């Protein structure tokens, strides 16, 4: 049972990393510095490397590269949870009440 859960988490991590990379790719470069975050090329490198690591070490937490896999997942989630909302806010996006 545990193997299925880890396999499912590993399978879901790849699209999450891909989403973070594509979102960073589609944003304006000046929005990153305006939001006081790392530059766009830095985040493209971080999220791109994360996607590559998530694919290579697809086994997730049960594989031999689990430390790399976990670091890649955390990097993608940091982009989605911290950087993405700041960039969207700087560019005037987000919910309008």
UniProtKB/TrEMBL annotation:
Keywords linked to the UniProt accession: Membrane, Transmembrane, Transmembrane helix
Keyword Membrane: yes
Transmembrane segments: 6-22, 42-61, 67-87
InterPro entries linked: DUF2516
The protein's name: DUF2516 family protein
């Amino acid at each position: 049972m545990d193997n299925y859960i880890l396999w499912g988490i590993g399978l879901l991590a790849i699209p999450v990393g891909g989403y973070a990379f594509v979102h960073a790719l589609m944003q304006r470069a000046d929005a990153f510095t305006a939001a006081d975050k790392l530059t766009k090329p830095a985040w493209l490198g971080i999220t791109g490397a994360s996607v590559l690591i998530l694919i290579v070490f697809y086994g997730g937490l049960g594989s031999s590269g689990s430390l790399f896999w976990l670091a890649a997942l955390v990097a993608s989630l940091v982009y989605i949870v911290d950087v993405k909302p700041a960039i969207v806010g700087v560019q005037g996006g987000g919910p309008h009440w």
